[in-house]
């Protein structure tokens, strides 16, 4: 009985995948991140909420290696990654889908997907991965020979998400996936994010769409003026008078 209990406790143990500790960052003399800390456990969907200009995208760039913190640290699977080049961080298993679903407009859909398979150890499996993303995004299979510039806004967003999956990431960071999309497409995007978690991908979701994010995320952090001002499980945040008034308009 004791062995079974210990096995259950071990299986339920949360594994910290990403830990951001006391990050400060400035653009020149302008400080935009102030002592930011957050934790993401393996298998979670975690939301990072806040208005435009709150510092969310800057934080993502510090995690992905596009920027280097002035102070503090970023740990992935127990190892520090802050200060490492972005390609090394990608090879560790972190992918970033930037705001606006940026794709290579003059390349075909398939060529865009292949660009996501360049990290070490992934290229040999690219055909299997392409079929996998076609299963998730059937419309991309239909459009595989089209140039990305001919896709609709929603299709480009899906292509950007699919390209990030091609690298077989452990952690996907999505920056404002719903921005500028029609409500029907927004619903599809959030459903896809949920399905990625079911396939074993941990998600950090940066969004101004607070309502939908709180519906699918396990936990969320709220950022204002470069600082984390609130965090908790999404049910508690949905019931918060502050969140309801400031972010949900209730």
Decide which structural class fits the backbone: alpha/beta
For this structure, what is the CATH class?
Alpha Beta
Strand order of the largest sheet: 6-7-8-3-9-10
Look at the structure and give the mean pLDDT.
Answer: 89
Characterize the main sheet.
6 strands, mixed
CATH superfamily: P-loop containing nucleotide triphosphate hydrolases
- Principal-axes shape call: globular
Count of DSSP E strands?
10
Write down the CATH topology.
Answer: Rossmann fold
State the helicity in percent bands. Answer: 25-40%
The helix/strand order is: HEEEHEEHEHHHHEHEHEEHH
Q: Would you kindly provide a written description of the structure presented here, covering whatever features stand out?
A:
This protein is of the alpha/beta class. The chain has one domain (42-68, 83-246): P-loop containing nucleotide triphosphate hydrolases (Rossmann fold), CATH 3.40.50.300. It has 11 helices and 10 strands. The strands form 2 sheets. The protein has a 6-stranded mixed beta sheet, sandwiched between helices. It has a 4-stranded antiparallel beta sheet with strand order 2-1-4-5, with helices on one face. Helix 4 (109-115) packs parallel to helix 7 (153-165). The N and C termini lie far apart (50 Å). 39% of the residues are buried. Mean pLDDT is 89; it is low at 1-12.
